[in-house]
Amino acid sequence: MIDAKAVIGMYSITHRTIKLQTEGMTHQESLTQLPFGGNCMNWVLGHIMANRTNVETLMNLPAIWSYEEAQRYRRGSPPVTGEEGDEYPLDKILADLDRSQAQLVEALQAMTPEDMEQVRGDGTLGERLAFFHFHETYHAGQLEIFRQMTGRDAKIK
After folding, report:
1. Is there a contact between 11 and 101 (Cβ–Cβ < 8 Å)?
2. Residue 3 · residue 117 · CB < 8 Å
3. With contact defined as beta carbons under 8 Å apart, do 89 and 31 qualify?
4. Backbone phi, then psi, for 119, in 5-degree steps?
5. What is the CA radius of gyration of the chain?
6. 37 burial class (0-12, 13-18, 19+ CB within 10 angstroms)?
7. Contacts for 35-40 with beta carbons within 8 Å, 24 or more apart?
8. Cβ(130)–Cβ(8) under 8 Å?
9. H-type alpha helices, the chain
10. CA triple 62-66-81, angle to 5 deg
11. What is the DSSP letter of 17?
């Protein structure tokens, strides 16, 4: 069984990693493109927030981002280059992530073991939250590369 306290710990580590790797970064730096394709830090962070809308929906929480806001950063969306001006500012994404984190932790603190065992789709609430956390961790790990591409040192050594 996956317990709420463990899920709080997992999301807290990822949130801290994201905050460390984005510390001092500018919006313009968040648009730095990889030399081999893919997407930029801004897209990855927005994608994490888009994924958080799935978590919030799963937990019956109010979504920080609307469906429309999240669409820009869904899998398969065009690269964020800054040329079209349709990306969200870095500080907005990070502030919204903080709001999502606070809401998630508060909701999880109120969860019972029985709540975490409720079936939600193709698994229990705990299992689904663990999967969404894996997804977030995968992308949070990419932030170090983006940070170093701008000439900044990694924050986690």
Report:
1. yes
2. no
3. no
4. -75, 130
5. 16
6. exposed
7. 38/79, 39/79, 39/80, 40/79, 40/80, 40/81, 40/146
8. no
9. 4-22, 27-30, 41-58, 67-71, 90-109, 113-116, 125-149
10. 140
11. H
Residues across the chain: 157
**Paired strand residues for 119:** 124
How far is 56 from 52, CA to CA, in rounded Å?
6
Partners of 124 in the β-ladder: 119
**Per-residue confidence in pLDDT tens, the chain, 157 aa:** 899 999 999 999 999 999 999 999 999 999 998 888 789 999 999 999 999 999 999 999 999 999 999 999 999 988 888 877 778 999 999 999 999 999 999 999 999 999 999 999 899 999 999 999 999 999 999 999 999 999 998 888 7
| Residue 83, token pair as written in the block | 């040329």
Distance (Å, rounded) from C-alpha 67 to C-alpha 22?
25
CB of 111 closer than 8 Å to CB of 4: yes
Angstrom distance (rounded) from CA 115 to CA 29: 41
Using CA atoms, how far residue 34 sits from 2, 5, 42, 59, 139, in Å, is: 36, 37, 12, 35, 15
Question: Is 20 in a helix, a strand, or coil?
Answer: helix
Both tokens of 6, joined, read 């463990």
